[in-house]
Amino acid sequence: MICRLCGRRKTRRACPALHEDICAVCCGTKRETEIRCPSSCQYLVSARAHPAAVVRRQQEEDLRVFLPTVRDLSDRQAELLWQIAGFVRHYEGDGLLRTTDLDVEAAAAALAATHETAARGLIYEQRPSSLAAQQFASGLNLFISKIPGDRVSSFDRDLAAVLRAIERGARDAHKALGGDSAYRGLLRRLIVLSQDKPDSAPPTGVVERGGSLLVRP
Length: 217
Description:
The chain contains eight helices and four strands; from the N terminus they run E-E-H-H-H-H-H-H-H-H-E-E. Strand 3 and strand 4 form a beta hairpin.
């Protein structure tokens, strides 16, 4: 049997939350992010009993996928990335349309093209084709409009670079990790801010500065 979540690997574990068998990778990467695991799950109990090795393996896999998508960002762009990533990971939509990694990718690409054009002094709004992607782009655009800073061409260039990184991240996470919302799951695991988990340190390759997490390849 092939795991329904990733569509690639063989099923290995009986998931009590989904009431079906899934592969070990999806069990490990989607646990308590995309899958609402019951406290009685043997794999959840085992992971909590031995968190260091499990967390390290997950961080290494996440960073293997994530870092190549953001390695060319400047410090300013990295700070901007984490602000926007906070919106991306928490986005729920209106409850009627399910937002997938493909929608995130399409919305980020459209907004990036819009800001690339604006950086050249032209106004031309690009829009993604799907309704879910359009709603996501609208919400993200509203969030971006509230970020402090002068709306000059350098801001548009930085923002376009960040949105291209999100576009790559959504595409690569979907391919490498499987599932419809692998990228947001990855962001939830990577973005561990001090107010969320004060005793947790940022993963290797990510450093904290002024309350924000910066990428360090």
